[in-house]
Structure formats: structure tokens, C-alpha cells
Amino acid sequence: MAKITCTKCGIPKTRKEFYSNKRTRSGLRSECKECSKGMTRDYRNGKKQKTVLDVLKEIRDLLKEMKNANVVNFVHRSGFDK
Ligand SMILES: [Zn+2]
Questions:
Q1: Which is nearest to 31 in space by CA: 46, 48, 10?
Q2: Which among 1, 39, 41, 44 is least buried, having the fewest CB atoms inside 10 angstroms?
Q3: 61 is in which domain, residue-wise?
Q4: What is the CA radius of gyration of the chain?
């Protein structure tokens, strides 16, 4: 069986190792399954730009955590917030 060289990792692999893509001439994606997975992972790991909503959610979670740890009450009682 003829092997196809992945454009990402450069390793020749069988057709089974590639996802199909009807838009390409070969009917397969130019990068292998492993590399496709890696790309998705990179995207999830923060290559995606944070939206304002994401940041607000983070702040809200942080405040919740602080409240849980009684940090907010502590700051208030000790007068650090004045
Ligand atoms: Zn690859």
C-alpha cells in the first residue's frame, strides 16, 4: 500500500492514519491523525484568544475562591480595604 507523507511531521503513513477530507484531491487531509489531534490540543491549550467573557468568568471564580477561603472577610475585618 502506498504511503502518504504527513505535511506536519513528515512521517510516511498509510491512508488509514489520515482523516478524510473531501475537499482535497487525494480525499485525505494533508496531516495525519496524530498531528490533527495535536493541533486540536494546542488550540485548547490557549492558542485560542481569551474573550472578555472568559476573563470575567475567571475573576468571578477567583472571587468565589477568595470568599470560600474567608480572605474577603479577613480583609474587611482587619480594615485593609479602607
Ligand atoms: Zn503527522
A1: 10
A2: 1
A3: 49-82
A4: 24
How many whole angstroms from 50 Cα to the centroid of ligand 1?
28
- C-alpha 3 to ligand 1 mean position (Å): 12
Is the same domain home to 55 and 17? no
Residues 53 and 68 in one domain: yes
- What pTM was estimated for this model as a whole? 0.47
What distance in angstroms lies between residue 22's CA and the mean position of ligand 1's atoms? 19
| 12 C-alpha to ligand 1 centroid (Å) | 8
- Please report, in tens digits, the pLDDT of each residue of the chain (82 residues total): 789 999 999 999 999 999 999 998 889 999 999 999 887 666 666 556 778 888 899 999 998 888 887 765 666 677 666 6
